Amino acid sequence: MKTRAWLLLALAATTAVPAIVLTQRSEYPITVVARGKGPYTFPDGYQTPWDRIEIMVTEKLSPNLFVLHGSEGLDPAHPDGSGGRALALFGSDGVLMVDSENRQVGEKTLKAIRSFTNAPIKVLVNSHIHSDHTGANAFFAQQGAVIFSQDNLRNEMLHPPLRANGQPGPAAEMAGVPTAVYAYDPSAPGRPAVTLTMNGETVDFIPMMPSHTAGDTIVRFRTANVIYIEDFYRNFGYPFADQANGGSVSGMLDAIDLIQKIAGADTTLVPGHGTLVKKGDLAPYRAMLVDILAKVKTLRAQGKSLTEVLAANLTAPYDRTILGDTQQSKDRFITEAFDEVKDFPPVVDGKRTMPRRP
Ligand SMILES: [Zn+2]
Q1: What are the C-alpha distances in Å from 21 to residues 116, 200, 328, 352?
Q2: Which of 102, 19, 60 shows the shortest CA–CA distance to 110?
Q3: Distance 105 CA to ligand 1 centre (A)
Q4: Which domains does the chain show, CATH number per domain?
Q5: How close is the Cα of 2 to the center of ligand 1, in Å?
Q6: What is the distance between the alpha carbons of residues 211 and 245, in angstroms, rounded to a whole number?
Q7: How far, in Å, is the centroid of ligand 1 from the Cα of 328?
Q8: Which residues contact 341 (CB under 8 A, 6 or more apart)?
Q9: Is the per-residue pLDDT at 309 higher than 70?
Q10: pLDDT digit string, tens, across residues 326-351
Q11: For position 358, what pLDDT does the model report?
């Protein structure tokens, strides 16, 4: 009788939780929905129709590590796929999320997660502060998530830098502010600040040097052989270093160099936007950063103004190969380089006071 009861229990357990094979398999990553290539145009005054944006599984990185991303062609901030990529690692230990997507699509992001798991939401780690990565933080905290990030990200959230017009940024939604914080240690680049064992995975939260922002974290999944590399690399639009939040183009170069050291040749790298890459794919991007920084530095040393440097069209050689190469995207990149090569203000508490322009 006793044995029989055990057998029944074991059978029930097997039915309820399908066995997951947790070794890396060669068929991964699997693209479910390809990201858009554009070009995209939006009329003047266009507003993102959040009610039309869907959040779906766009890639599978392992049997229990899925990518969530938004619809193509609707969100001018990211027309190739609305929002930032979010990841969900799932299984009997609960759900671990990397980034929370935009606030407007919190319910839809949860619904997408519920399409493949009923496990409780337990951990959320933020790769950086931008709203397409942290917007639904408070919503997922209400689902039970403990939120992890660099302390610089928490500082950026609690004390946002002034906006370009000199006005203070919006106050933080306290429920969405990370509470489990750690710092980047310049003496040990690449060392994980947090390592979690969940759902057959070993997950490392690796704080980065100030690069895309001063609060960046990359997330490594050792079994799946995947690293979420967030936004210091992008292959849709020109590079973006958020200097007001402590980022810099030279910091993004350091971040790329660190990835070369810690990723294997076959490691799947997951940028916040664009397509999945391997570390070999980062080389042309790195070369472009070096080239543009050097050219802008030369022009600025010759006394050229920002207007003159923008007019020099330094990105022309790259426009053929860079998708999403809008004027706004290249002007932002050149302006970053211009501000960085001379009189670049220091980072204080994750923020930098950038020159204001009318
Ligand atoms: Zn992003």
Answers
A1: 16, 9, 45, 46
A2: 102
A3: 15
A4: 24-283 (3.60.15.10)
A5: 55
A6: 10
A7: 16
A8: 293, 296, 297, 300
A9: yes
A10: 899 999 999 999 999 999 999 988 88
A11: 65
